[in-house]
UniProtKB/TrEMBL annotation:
<dbReference type="GO" id="GO:0016747">
    <property type="term" value="F:acyltransferase activity, transferring groups other than amino-acyl groups"/>
</dbReference>
<feature type="domain" description="N-acetyltransferase">
    <location>
        <begin position="7"/>
        <end position="174"/>
    </location>
</feature>
<keyword id="KW-0808">Transferase</keyword>
<protein>
    <submittedName>
        <fullName>GNAT family acetyltransferase</fullName>
    </submittedName>
</protein>
<dbReference type="InterPro" id="IPR016181">
    <property type="entry name" value="Acyl_CoA_acyltransferase"/>
</dbReference>
<dbReference type="InterPro" id="IPR000182">
    <property type="entry name" value="GNAT_dom"/>
</dbReference>
<dbReference type="Pfam" id="PF00583">
    <property type="entry name" value="Acetyltransf_1"/>
</dbReference>
<dbReference type="InterPro" id="IPR050276">
    <property type="entry name" value="MshD_Acetyltransferase"/>
</dbReference>
Length: 174
């Protein structure tokens, strides 16, 4: 396995929405198969997910794209923290996904560090993100990057009639 791939990180445009959606779906189907019912994962709609990403990009949600050889292989979306009593010093990594073919090569770390850097450049002093409680792989990833689990949790329903999953809030102070 090649570990040292040269990547480029840039801001997403509307043109990138379908590639983002494809990575989002593919990553969910692989990573969340133990948490979300298979029927829901198999019925994720590329058309709907593409439109969701177009809408987010049009609303000026910042989405960072990771490319290798001009091919999009991952993305991270960042925004002001969207949950309880947030103040303007708290930013959020609301999504971060790599295509499964690129997992375990250090690229997720590069992408997360780019998201952290962008949030710091925007003036945020604390970065927060939600992680499925049972997603041990993701929790170890964030621990290694200096994030800490907080005592805040929430139950989130993924798709109508879908799984009710517990998420833990992680934070990193800059």
């Amino acid at each position: 396995m090649i570990k040292n791939l040269t990547s480029n990180i840039r801001t997403a445009t509307l043109h990138d929405a379908e590639a983002i959606a494809q990575i989002h779906i593919c990553s969910w189907q692989k990573m969340y198969r133990d948490f979300i019912p298979e029927i829901i994962l198999q019925n994720l709609s590329l058309k709907e997910r593409t439109q969701q990403w177009r809408d987010l990009i049009e609303r000026e949600v910042k989405v960072l794209i990771m490319e290798i050889n001009n091919q999009i292989v991952g993305f991270a979306s960042i925004c002001p923290f969207r949950d309880f009593s947030a103040d303007n010093s708290m930013g959020e990594i609301s999504a971060i996904y790599l295509h499964p073919d690129y997992w375990r090569r250090g690229l997720g770390t590069q992408l997360c560090l780019a998201a952290i850097s962008e949030l710091a450049n925007q003036g945020y002093k604390k970065i927060l993100l939600w992680v499925f409680e049972d997603n041990i792989q993701a929790r170890k990833f964030y621990d290694a990057l200096g994030f800490e689990a907080t005592s805040s949790t929430k139950l989130e329903e993924f798709y109508e009639g879908g799984a009710l999953l517990k998420e833990i809030l992680y934070q990193k102070t800059l």
